[in-house]
Amino acid sequence: MINIVLFGPPGSGKGTQAQNLIEKFNLKQISTGDLFRFNIKNNTELGQLAKSFIDKGELVPDQVTIDMLTDELKKPCEAQGFIFDGFPRTATQTEALENIVKEVLNSDINVCLSLIVEDTVLVERLLKRGETSGRTDDSNKEIISNRIKEYYAKTAEVAELYKKQGKYVEVNGVGAIEEISAKLFAEIEKIK
Fold first, then answer.
1. What is the pLDDT of residue 1?
2. Could you tell me if 126 and 11 are in contact, meaning their C-beta atoms sit under 8 angstroms apart?
3. Residues flagged as binding site
């Protein structure tokens, strides 16, 4: 089983690369954003709880997210592993994820792959995406810059934890999609 934490700031190509990793290694992507939307849409107990915080403009407590993640990992699945996207974002969440993967899957997080792209390139990519995506957060340079800064601030401690474990790998996220995929594939082949 291969379990990957995938990092990349907005505009790094993380979504595209996640899809390529899924196809190549038969993985299942678990995005906390998708979990929230699913649970809220289906009015689950955890969804109602998450919505109660979101409706007040508050952050959803870690435990609610952890419970959703645990439920998702307990579902029958034919995948050969998982890509965790959007979680963990803090040292506490990192520890929780390690425990969940150990308890539910009897496995470990193998690697944290981090797509590295210069901020100027990220801004260019997001502005270009904003021209066609209709996303307002992709059309304002100031908002984009803030999102990128927030990403680095939030993920720094998680990156440090994985560096200490020898599981953190930076991959250049600039170039042809196939070239970047090949670099990611090579890193995963090292742990298989």
1. 93
2. yes
3. 11-16, 32, 37, 58-60, 86-89, 93, 129, 135, 147, 175
Residue 147 CB neighbour total at 10 angstroms? 18
Say which CATH number the domain at 74 has: 3.40.50.300
Which long-range CB contacts under 8 A does 99-106 form with residues at least 24 apart? Answer: 100/66, 100/69, 100/70, 100/73, 101/3, 101/73, 104/70, 104/73, 104/74, 105/1, 105/3, 105/73
Q: Outline where 14-169 has alpha helix (H).
A: 14-25, 32-41, 45-54, 62-74, 91-105, 119-133, 141-164
- Which two three-digit tokens encode residue 170? 């930076």
Structure tokens at 49: 């709880």
The CA distance from 105 to 74, in Å, is 8
Residue type, 28: K
List Cβ neighbours of 121 (8 Å cut-off, separation of 6 or more): 11, 174
Number of domains observed in the structure of the chain: 1
Report residue 77 as tokens. 């699945």
* Boundaries of domain holding 78: 2-190
pLDDT digits (tens, 9 = 90+) for 159-183: 999 999 999 999 999 999 999 999 9
Binding-site residues for ATP, in ranges, read 11-16, 129, 175
- Known binding site for AMP: residues? 32, 37, 58-60, 86-89, 93, 135, 147
